[in-house]
Amino acid sequence: MIHVYDATWRDAVAAFLLQQRSFAELNGQAPETFRDENVADFETEETVSLVFEDGDVIAVADLLKKHPVDGSLWLGLFVVDERLHGTGIATRLYEQLEQTYMRPFQTVFRLGVLPHNERARRFWERQGYVYEKDSITARGDHVHVLKKVIS
What we know:
Helices cover 34% and strands 30% of the residues. The protein has five helices and seven strands. The protein has helices spanning 10-19, 21-26, 31-42, 89-102, 118-126, and strands spanning 2-4, 48-53, 57-64, 73-80, 108-113, 130-136, 142-149. The protein has a seven-stranded mixed beta sheet with strand order 1-2-3-4-5-7-6, sandwiched between helices. Helix 1 runs antiparallel to helix 3 (31-42). 28% of the residues are buried.
């Protein structure tokens, strides 16, 4: 089930993010820094933050529905519990996310993938995303911007 994040989810999301050590490491962050930065992002009003749960938090996502420069929807974060990688659940969760929270609002989706995260890049390409350009995030990270257009 997908829930829109609010303060009642704070502790559960913080605990979930702290367990995602591989993702934090890919971002060059300590698990605590990764947790704190993303919980803070979830509590801003600029994005729609989502919690996927099946009794426990199994994934989180953060969406910017309309980017102020390019007008597209940006998927700023999509983290599935690393214990579930390779099970196919990430694809099913992403499909739900796209159908319910992305397609009703936009026809162009973008996201950034760290250049050294080949597994993520392959995942997003299987979801229909294609390389658009290289960019630098607000945090100063180099990313490959991937784009998906819905016709």
